[in-house]
User: Fold this.
Amino acid sequence: MNGLLMDVKRMAVHDGPGLRTTLFFKGCPLSCRWCHNPEGQSVKPEVAFFGNKCIGCGRCRAACPHRMADSEPCVGCGRCASACLTGARKLYGREIALDEALQIALEDRIFYGDTGGVTLSGGEPLMQAAFAAALLEALRERGVRTAVDTCGHAPWKAFEETMPFCDLYLFDVKHMDSEKHRQATGQGNELILENLTRLAERGASIQIRIPLIPAFNDDKENLRRTGAFLRSIRPEKIKLLPYHDAARVKYRALGKADTMPARPDDMAIRLNRALALLEGMNLPVYCD
Ligand code: SF4
Ligand code: SF4
Assistant:
């Protein structure tokens, strides 16, 4: 069985408890305007070009099977990225066998200790649910703790497949108004909230993540509605992720339209306001 991965992060400290290895799956059903991993949205391999690193040596063109001719579309083979010595061309997306993914995930096992483990993230790992479930099962069999970082927009079957082998879901909640959710992410929120409710009803361990996007979801009304909904879910923790626009360079490198909002100067104030409001609702909210 093969999966499509776009990256691996070792010694990760923000993708669940303890020290973790995070495997980033490629492909996402949402297209959030503020997405920090735009390279994770397409289900196909893509090559990004970081012009500031290019020295004009021409090795990429020479390696390309069709010499990068405009008349022939890029097939995402990655030969140009392999030939580039400066990192100006980078391939996102590589097909990988289950055994190899398992080997990568186990490499740093010694550092996981009592709390760490392996997190499947993306993109959206549940778009490759069968591969994700098989990898989680193999990790569990070896005594490794597992987590899935999900946007929640997946068929319920994907949760059923992964739940027996997943110790923790890191679950994103973005907006309580479905139409606003659709305008900003391409999809309504009904399936996401339904999946979250069902996961909670089945007793899954859940930590919520709220990307705090200025002028989108950080107003009092939405935060109050979010807090009221989350009280019924009873998550272990709620983490606020303050917006930043560091990923803007990746949009340019991928040739995608830059949809990221500007980062306001008062982001810290907005964050503290949101923290105080949700704390005031007796929710286990934090930011690190
Ligand atoms: S191989 Fe890399 S450095 Fe050389 S021209 Fe291509 S992108 Fe630029
Ligand atoms: S990914 Fe392959 S087809 Fe696309 S530009 Fe690079 S070498 Fe050419």
